[in-house]
Structure formats: C-alpha cells, structure tokens
Amino acid sequence: MESNKTQSLLFDTNVLLINPDLLNQFSRRVILPQKILDELDYRKTKAEHQEKAQLCLHHIEKHRLKAVSTQQRSGSSRGNNDDIILTQALSHTKAGNIQLISNDVGMRNRAQAKDIAALSLDRFLQQSGEADSAVTPARQALFELLLRGDFVSLHQQLASQSEAHFNFYLSTGLTPLMTCIQQKKLDAIDFLLSLPSTELDLIDKAKLKITAFCHAAQRRQLNTMDKLLHAGANPYITSKGNNRGNSAILIAAWDGALNVIQFIHGHTDIRFSLNQADNNGFTPLIKASIKGNDSIVSYLLEQGVDIDIRDRNDKSALDYAKEKGHQKTVTLLQGKIHG
C-alpha cells in the first residue's frame, strides 16, 4: 500500500531502535502508544539498546510527544504486546488513518487484519525519502525566493500549496538548507528551521554524503549548529561517502577547527566521545596528528583522550605525527606518554 501523507505513523519499537531519528523527521505525524514508550524505557536498561533507546526517549521529550493509552485488563500479558500497541493506537484514531512501520512480519499481519496499513522500514523509507525529493520548476522557484530573502512571497506560496516543502535536492546534490549553510544565508536558514516540514537530517547526494549539521560544522558556523540542534537535528549521523563514519567532530579535527570541537564537546545536548573513530579507525587525535593541528592535539590531550588507540593500519597518533614530520605534535604526544 502506498504511503498517505495524512496518516498517523506508528513506529514499532524494533524500527525506532534502528533509526531513532524517525521521531525527529516525522514528529508531527507520530502516534505513540504507551506500550511503545514502556518498551523503550525498558530497553534503555539493556547495554545493546541503551544508546538508541535513550535517543528515542530524548526525541520524545523534545517534541513533547504524548503517549496514548487505553484501559487494559489486569490479566494482559507480555505475549499480547503487539495487540496492546495496536489497540492503544486505535483508541486514538481510526484504522484507515494509521500506517504501521515494523520489521516484524507478524506485527504487520496483525495490523493488516485490523485494516491498518503496514510497511517494513526499508519500504517506508523508500517511499517517504526518495520519491518526493526531486527538484521541479515550482520548487526551483521557491528556492530562488528563499535565496532572495522574499519571505512574504514564500509564506504566501507555502500557504497556497499544501504539499510544498524544501526537502528536495538541487542539481548540486545539496538540499536548500545545506546550500543556505554553504552560502551563509542566515535569514534563509532561520526561515527553513521555522518550518515544521523541513527535514533536518537528510544526507547530501554530493561528494561528502553528510548532513546539514556536518556542513555547518565544516564551515565553523557555531550559531547555525546550535540552531539546528534546538530545531531537532541529530548530531550523531555520520558521513555515508568514501570516508564513512566521519562525524562533525572528526571533520573539525581534520580541518583544524578547535572552536567546533570545543562547541560540540561542551554542548549539553550532545554526548560525543572524543575517542570515536571513523571507518578507517581515525580518532580526532589521530586526524589532528596527521595534519599537525597542534592546538587541537593539546586540547584533546587535556581532555584525557586515549593516545594508544590504533587505526586499521595499526598506527597510533604518535606514529602518524612522526611519519608526517610534525615535530611539535610528536613532542606533545611524547610528553603525555612520559608524563
């Protein structure tokens, strides 16, 4: 069954633990049964699901999503969780207005038996993420109004076109939000972030395959990064291009952007480890040592990062500093080792 953009979305626990950001992207359409909330609260106590479950709960709180419930008989058991979830959802809205997204075939079959549309996560993402992302003449016209800062006309256009949005890709492979970040169109960024329909965590289709948050980090736009976070952007999404796993903090370490690293590390809404690594095994310290970014190396050492971590080629930050001839970096690292 094709996706209907007016339907409430019921995300099963199994898909939320795969992609917590669904709660960000579709917060205005989410229906949240109490049983799902209970399952997430339980999963946060389990090591294998702790981080993702806590992210889900964070997004639920941030968007003030209210759990829906219905009176259950005292004899209800854990074996009836699927039925409880569906019953709680149906207590809030009619079957035809709900779309279930679940990777549990049994759950989807139960939903369909109750006339609830059901899709796997991959199928849902295919329909919702790519089918409606191409630039058209009408969207190009909206984008040009945005770049000109003609927000009065934009409000009029958006009011008259209920399906209009800015979640499309330009010929550059960037979304309008990413392009405005690149061009430092600060008023346009504020306008886009004010629209509930703006999807904040799309990945660009250009070379880097990164989010708007990472684009802002790459350009050292701390205010924009902060605004994106407050609007609900997910800072944990890493690059999907050739250098997979590259995060905002790793990008900053490579580029010598100490202020970005300090911003991320000190932000109360971000829980980034300074020892994280990309798919090459490069940590921020290794990246900064490769480039000889000594101010960053000093800062990271002050924060107590692990200097013994080795990448996929079995090289440490000190190995790279010596190899690249960054003598000051070598001195900083050896001082920590022998200190």
Question: What is the fold's blueprint, element by element?
Answer:
Blueprint: E1 8-11, H1 13-16, H2 22-25, E2 32-33, H3 34-43, H4 50-62, E3 67-68, H5 81-90, E4 98-101, H6 105-113, E5 117-119, H7 121-130, H8 137-148, H9 151-160, H10 176-182, H11 186-194, H12 212-218, H13 222-231, H14 248-255, H15 258-266, H16 284-291, H17 294-302, H18 317-324, H19 327-338
Parallel strand pairs: 1-4, 2-3, 4-5
Top keywords for this entry?
single chain; 339 residues; mainly alpha; Rossmann fold; Serine Threonine Protein Phosphatase 5, Tetratricopeptide repeat; three-stranded parallel β-sheet; two-stranded parallel sheet; 50% helix; globular
What does this structure look like?
By secondary structure, the protein is mostly helical. It contains 19 helices and 5 strands. The protein has helices at residues 13-16, 22-25, 34-43, 50-62, 81-90, 105-113, 121-130, 137-148, 151-160, 176-182, 186-194, 212-218, 222-231, 248-255, 258-266, 284-291, 294-302, 317-324, 327-338; strands at 8-11, 32-33, 67-68, 98-101, 117-119. α16 packs parallel to α18 (317-324). The longest helix has 13 residues, at 50-62. The radius of gyration is 23 Å and the shape is globular.
CATH class division of one domain? Alpha Beta
The fourth-level CATH homologous superfamily of one domain is 5'-nuclease
Biggest sheet character? 3 strands, parallel
Fraction in beta strands: under 5%
Shape: globular
Taking pLDDT < 50 over at least 5 consecutive residues as the criterion, the unreliable ranges are 73-78
Strand order of the largest sheet: 1-4-5
Architecture of one domain in CATH? 3-Layer(aba) Sandwich
| Euclidean distance between termini CA atoms | 64 Å
State mean pLDDT (0 to 100 scale): 90
CATH topology label of one domain? Rossmann fold
Give helix and strand order, one letter per element, not per position.
Answer: EHHEHHEHEHEHHHHHHHHHHHHH
Secondary structure category:
mainly alpha
Helix percentage: 40-55%
- By DSSP (H or I, 4+ residues per run), the number of helices equals 19
